[in-house]
Design goal:
The complex is a heterodimer of chains A (107) and B (121). Chain A has 107 residues and is mainly beta. Chain A is built from no helices and eleven strands. In chain A, 0% of the residues lie in helices and 53% in strands. Chain B is mainly beta. In chain B, strands 2, 4, 5, 6, 9, 10 and 11 form a seven-stranded mixed sheet that branches. Chain B is globular. Chain B starts with a strand and ends with a strand. Classes of the chains: A mainly beta (107), B mainly beta (121). Chains A and B meet through β5, β9 and β10 of A and β5 and β10 of B.
């Protein structure tokens, strides 16, 4: 059964920190991975698609990398607005699966 | 600007039905695939269904196949989700989202604000 495993589940960090979140696929998914940010009570917002393409309007402190089975989302310098939950999503045509999420909280 | 506004959520008894709507604006609706996703309380998003821009290709997740029906009316810039045989585990916030298949891929690039569905007796 295909799975996306995201870690850590919770991450404590301070403003200005460099933060990395990892998403691992149970089988190779090439570059078909997206990252979303979700603030409490809000809809998810697309940050990165095709593993490393920055969605229009998203700050450049967000970056994505990886291919195959291991992917990372990096926030180069954490800002107050960035405390939120982040989800990865594999997509390949109509097949799709979300990771369990990583909550980024204030240290 | 792109806007997606869901409506139609509410409280429904187990076994009941509900129809959700998603009103789109700010883009050419007929150029885009669309999708429904839900999020149960405290959980991550769960993809439910895709529909092609013309409505002729439809895909469902296993948890809703046979119970939920996605449809669209391009003239009305509207997306729908008809939900039958609702269960307690269908309780969630339901989102519609745009899928830019023809420009960049199957990611979900714009989301609505969601509509809450509660299934309880």
């Amino acid at each position: 059964d295909f799975q996306m495993t995201q870690f850590p589940s919770t991450l404590s960090a301070s403003v200005g920190d460099r933060v990395t979140i990892t998403c691992r696929a149970s089988q190779s998914i090439s570059i078909w991975l997206a990252w979303y940010q979700q603030r409490p009570g809000k809809a998810p917002k697309l940050l990165i698609y095709k593993a490393s393409s920055l969605q229009s309007g998203v700050p450049t402190r967000f970056s994505g990398s990886g291919s195959g089975t291991e992917f990372t989302l990096t926030i180069s310098s954490l800002q107050p607005d960035d405390f939120a939950t982040y989800y990865c999503q594999h997509y390949n045509n109509y097949l799709t699966a979300f990771g369990q999420g990583t909550r980024v909280e204030i240290k | 600007q792109v806007q997606l506004v869901e409506s139609g959520g509410g409280l429904v008894k187990p076994g009941g039905s509900l129809r959700l709507s998603c009103a789109a604006s700010g883009f050419t609706f007929s150029d885009y695939y669309m999708s429904w996703i839900r999020q149960a309380p405290g959980k991550g998003p769960e993809w439910l269904s895709y529909i092609s821009n013309g409505g002729d290709s439809i895909y469902y997740g296993d948890s809703v196949k046979g119970r939920f029906t996605i449809s669209r009316d391009n003239a009305k810039y509207s997306l729908y989700l008809h939900m039958d045989s609702l269960r307690a585990e269908d309780t969630a916030v339901y989102y519609c989202a745009r899928v830019p298949v023809y420009s960049s891929g199957w990611q979900l690039d714009k989301w609505g604000q969601g509509t809450r569905v509660t299934v309880s007796s």
